[in-house]
């Protein structure tokens, strides 16, 4: 039986993946690396330094900077990101998410957060959603980023549940891979062509309801 839900944050709970994208786009321009939709997609779910490395690699500049310079660029991106967050409020919560979280609470499911973002506590507070998440995986304590199963495996563990008792929810391809590798049921939010490995796919958060998940899991049993 499903007892827990392990959530990604950016692009699932809130519209913040757009802010991350904007901030990286700005930095890519500064570094002279061409921005593209593919690059934006590949950056979803990827941690801060890994994201910068991916941008540099895309531009053939992987050896152009010292570690110290890279730290400065990563910090600069975060400053940009934080300034975009300043005016963010509950209106950035994606459609249907508040109701979904309430329903999960009413039905005694327990929730943890498996976001790669170091800013996730701040974002949840600012959105007024921190109360729903009993536990959070601290990404600074992880050895590997998504698609490695570590973060989603930990998301179940912190709740005291086995992976098979948990559903993981993600908008990034690497995130769905992480959920699957951890042995949880994966719900992908977004383009089914990109998220084709998800056990259950919804094109957007308005379809993310407990009833829809239950219906999809029943179909999967046969
Ligand atoms: C993920 C986002 O949740 O967190 C990525 O999808 C982001 O876009 C990553 O790069 C790391 O976030 P932060 O806030 O620690 O730089
Ligand atoms: Mg995400």
UniProtKB/TrEMBL annotation:
CDD domains: HAD_BPGM. It comes from the Bacteria. Pfam families: Hydrolase. One of its GO terms (molecular function) is beta-phosphoglucomutase activity. InterPro entries: B-phosphoglucomutase_hydrolase, Beta-PGM, HAD-like_sf, HAD-like_SPP, HAD-SF_hydro_IA, HAD_sf, PGP-like_dom2. Belongs to the HAD-like hydrolase superfamily. CbbY/CbbZ/Gph/YieH family. Its EC number is 5.4.2.6. Keywords: Isomerase. It comes from Companilactobacillus mishanensis. This is Beta-phosphoglucomutase.
